[in-house]
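Lecture notes, unit on protein representations.

Consider one protein chain, 440 amino acids long.
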Amino acid sequence: MLFGPEGRPPYAGRAAELPGYTPADRERWLPEPSKSSYRSDFERDRARILHSSALRRLGAKTQVVAPDEDDFARTRLTHSLEVAQVGRELGRSLGCDPDVVDAACLSHDLGHPPFGHNGERALNALSQDIGGFEGNAQTLRLLARLETKKFFEDGTSAGLNLTRASLDAACKYPWTRDDAPVDSHGRPTGKFGVYTDDLDVFAWFRRGITGTRKSMEAQVMDLADDISYSVHDVEDGIVNGQFQLRWLTDPEQRALVIDRTRQWYLPDTEPDAVDAALARLEATDVWVAEADGTRRSRAALKDMTSQLIGRFSNAAFDATREVYGNDPLTRHTADVVVPLETEIEIATMKGIAAAYVMSSEARQPLYARQRELLTELVEFLWATGEQFLDPMFAGDWREATDDRARRRAVIDQVASLTDSTALEWYATLVRGEPFRRAWY
């Protein structure tokens, strides 16, 4: 960066705001004095998330496999960085402020507990009488309460005190558990983005928005997340030796992937449509049927992931621009349009990883043990009160006015732990022995 004679950038002064955003979009829950700076309000939001302890902890949290199981596989942190790169570029091309999208992408997994979605299921089972546990609702709780940056005069936390646009962008499921939509078969989706405890900030950043519509930036974040893990989980699985894409030429293996894709992601899609999507992917020039671990093979895999990300992103960009033209598309003025064929291709890639990695029979005992561990840890901390809680969560326990709030403080504490810290706490507190990973 080039600096002027006083050590300040030559363009110092508030950064130019992109069109499509109003002063209300840049407001913060707790008003802050205007600062003369070369950064925009949205750039400040991104920086606050980038420097948060919750983001750092993602480096030791499971994406698909535990962080210490393999040096290559992605963690929640590296996944979030990749989602931010995809989302930032797609959002910018559609006219969104890239820092709003970037902030949403960086924060989209902050609420995930130890052991990924498996840990999420365990904590949800332990939280049914206090409103449940959901990683996306926990993300909002972190941004607006648990991560500390600003406080109201009455002593309550305003969290990172992000702008209205950034909080709205980070809200992937803008509804409560009770208001969660149902699928085509009338079954609750189980996904929600706000606990009843956090309805005050939710009502603030959703002011003037009716219904459960996601903002344009949240839709970009959501698509970038789907695109990223659809290809990267497959890449990780191949490099870790869990499967080869040539297996899909075997009728039984192909049927397994098609079935898992429909079961997990596309219950209303016919098998032939999934098979056709798989055939289109196999017909691309970059499909790596066999990877042998050599440097050339790794390069081919990396090119495949890059080209597929481009394929999916470009399809969404073209379809969205075809509907809305070339104007900047921001907040609640438009929707991301994803062609049906592209949706099925993305889901099929996710189905491959689901078939060979997430639902592998060999991993089921590990998953059961992880849930058991978290259950015992929560119950131990609940029984011992504030004694073993970190000071911040011990403070939440003391300030709680009923058992429901105290239980939430324990859940917040356990959700904040990394995989390795959860294992260590369990070994030392629950089992009363030095931490040794071998027993796990």
